[in-house]
Task: structure prediction
Amino acid sequence: DKSDSDEVFNVASSFDWPFDNLKIIHHQENLGLQQHILMCGDLVKDYDALIMLEDDLVVSQEFLRYAKEAVEFYREDPRIAGISLYNNDITEFAEQRPFYPLHDGYDNYFASVPSSWGQIWTQGQWLGFRAWYDNKSWENIDDIDLKVPQNVLLWKKSWKKFFYLYIACANKFIVYPRFALSTNMGDAGVHPRTKY
Result:
């Protein structure tokens, strides 16, 4: 996104990228987090799938293998709205209490909670959300508060709020790995403003 400093752009421009098709998108105006995520998600129109990593994430050496296998396995499953690289070990809304998914012997679990610390969308998954979002389906929701935590409804600038609503309305799930393949460095930013 637009910054007052060209430092990130300069690093990206001089980076030795040994793979195909390095594309640098340099915005002249700050889009803000919500519009930036939506713009990045829309890049999947040109690809089969997209891995969304923000600049404050660290990934496992195994993240790409997991991403490719998960995309292939869940690509055609209409119940899946996306795939996460992260797994929540605390609940976002119950006073930050520990979260332990049921251990059923599988490598992943499913939740009606969007991921924002390393998410993967296939073209079909993202375009399903985007059509719902662009049709402003979220404007006419009356009982959604029964399916989405109350404080999510109060979020003003979050793309994740709309993905919560979409998942609830469409009765879809996010695939989570039992062991996280990404994590947040905890640096100060827009959300949160202080370092963890």
User: Anything to note?
Assistant: Confidence is low (pLDDT under 50) at residues 191-196. The chain is about 30% helix and 15% strand.
